[in-house]
């Protein structure tokens, strides 16, 4: 199980935070462009899913899967978007994102009076805690079965 | 973990306001005062209003916190009260270290000050510049409480590594 990379977007699409752990293939464009591309795609998928769904889409878009990786998506009621790429056998990545939101984002960004909300996160302590959370998570182990 | 936090809050003597309410309000107060004040030369921040707010709050808090206490024996006794009960009811922990020269100078050290906890750890120097503004209110708080106990003092704060800080209390003898 492997975690590849993580994006956090604000409600209006600013890339607040990006981190990567095991990313073997680079996109070849700058991080800013990549983030815009990513956000655009997510935005489209979201509206696609809500339009095309034959039933009431309660939670909407949750994840997608390719042959190589899975993208997990978590959007909070306030519009914050957490995006995590993992391999295909990883489960419970959503819980991990919830945990990231509750235990790291809320604690070290919202409760830090020196952090501006809706701007890229600069806090070193936040970065440290994200890394800690992911590295101690059982999903992180780079052991492929 | 959550359980632990909950019991800690419940067992707490004064639950007058939820803790994050205070944290957010404090942050906004700091921003407000910074916004209103003119920067002096050298870009130093003018925070005396914030200190004054702290003073008034401290002055009032002492009335309430000491209602079940007898009179204090001496100055050291009062400072000890500040370090233990007073600090616990405001910041959920005691002062970690108290030092004095027995001539009116007290140094109160908190190794994990609540208002700095979420800002940084000792391994990074980020925000060290901005952090002192988060202590001004507490300086006033200390000064106000001591004033109501009959000690006129000046209080300064010092941060060397986050999230620990030291408050220097200098008693003024008349």
Rounded to an integer, what's the Rg of chain A over CA atoms? 15 Å
Q: Pick out the low-confidence regions of chain A.
A: none
Q: How widely separated are the two ends of chain B? A: 50 Å
CATH superfamily of chain B: Trafficking protein particle complex subunit 3
Question: Any idea how many domains of chain A?
Answer: 1
3D shape of chain B: globular
The CATH topology assignment of chain B is: Muramoyl-pentapeptide Carboxypeptidase, domain 2
SS-based class of chain A: alpha+beta
Residue share in helix of chain A: 25-40%
- Sum up the overall morphology of chain A in one term: globular
Provide the spatial order of strands within the biggest beta sheet of chain A.
2-1-5-4-3
Task: Please give the largest β-sheet of chain B.
Answer: 4 strands, antiparallel
| Amount of beta strand of chain B | 5-15%
Strands of chain A, total number: 5
> Total number of helical segments of chain B?
5
Kindly identify the CATH topology of chain A. Beta-Lactamase
Q: Give start-end ranges of low-pLDDT stretches of chain B.
A: 1-16
Query: Pairing-aware structural class of the strands and helices of chain B?
Result: alpha+beta
Q: Which chains share the greatest interface?
A: A-B, 11 and 18 residues
Q: Could you say how many structural domains of chain B there are in total?
A: 1
Walkthrough of the structure:
The complex is a heterodimer of chains A (145) and B (174). Chain A has 145 residues and is α+β, with helices and mostly antiparallel strands. Chain A contains 3 helices and 5 strands, in the order E-E-H-E-E-E-H-H. In chain A, helix 2 (93-110) runs antiparallel to helix 3 (124-136). The mean pLDDT of chain A is 88. Chain B has 174 residues and is of the alpha+beta class. Helices cover 43% and strands 13% of the residues of chain B. Chain B has helices at 2-10, 19-36, 48-65, 75-91, 136-148; strands spanning 97-100, 105-110, 153-158, 165-171. A 4-stranded antiparallel beta sheet of chain B has the order 1-2-4-3, with helices on one face. The A-B interface holds A 107-108, 111-114, 122-125, 128 and B 20, 23, 26-27, 30-31, 115, 118-121, 123-124, 126-127, 130-131, 134.
